Amino acid sequence: MNEADVVMTVQELNEFLAGAFPGAPRLYAVEDVGADGIRMRLPYDSAQIRPGGTLSGPTMMGLADGAAWLATLSRIGPVALAVTSHLSIDFLAKPGPADLLAHAKLLRLGRRRSVSEVRLWSDGTSIDDPVAFATVTYAIPS
């Protein structure tokens, strides 16, 4: 995929995200969109911490899912009814109390589904030192 494949900007993706969940806004936001995918940030909140002082699994899974969804929408446009059909995540390290970042890259985009890989890492570290890695499939309505 190349830059020309991007059909939604960072601002358009964030506005769509805010509008898609008006009663329960998502805390994460898109920071960058381009040929290599999208980068998102989830600001740290103490409510995300589980016993042991690490970010919870549902926090990481939610960001991975959201990143894959918005990576798909960045290429197909604002299709609210695209839904997760598969999510697999490997937790690689215990992230501490810091913002969580995600990079989602589309591996395949077809008419009926998309497949993405998502790397999660803690702010202050590198994408090359991920705390989790996910693969996410989205079903795209016809």
SSE diagram, text form:
Layout: H1 10-20, E1 29-34, E2 37-42, E3 49-50, E4 54-55, H2 57-76, E5 83-91, E6 100-109, E7 113-122, E8 132-139
Straight-line distance between termini? 21 Å
> Which strands sit side by side, in order, in the main sheet?
1-2-6-7-8-5
Helix/strand/pairing category:
alpha+beta
| Shape-level CATH architecture | Roll
Tally of helical segments: 2
Q: How many domain modules?
A: 1
Cα gyration radius (Å): 14 Å
CATH superfamily: Hotdog Thioesterase
Low-confidence stretches: none
Shape: globular
- CATH top-level class: Alpha Beta
Provide the CATH topology.
Answer: Thiol Ester Dehydrase, Chain A
Strand content: 35-45%
State the order of secondary-structure elements, H for helix, E for strand.
HEEEEHEEEE
Summarize the main sheet.
6 strands, antiparallel
Beta strand count: 8
Mean pLDDT, all residues = 94
What is the helix content? 10-25%
Structure description:
The structure is a single chain. By secondary structure, the chain is α+β, with helices and mostly antiparallel strands. It has one domain (3-139): Roll (Thiol Ester Dehydrase, Chain A), CATH 3.10.129. 22% of the residues lie in helices and 37% in strands. The chain contains two helices and eight strands; from the N terminus they run αββββαββββ. It has helices at 10-20, 57-76, and strands at 29-34, 37-42, 49-50, 54-55, 83-91, 100-109, 113-122, 132-139. The strands form two sheets. A six-stranded antiparallel beta sheet has the order 1-2-6-7-8-5. The chain is globular and about 45 Å long. The model has no long low-confidence stretch (mean pLDDT 94).
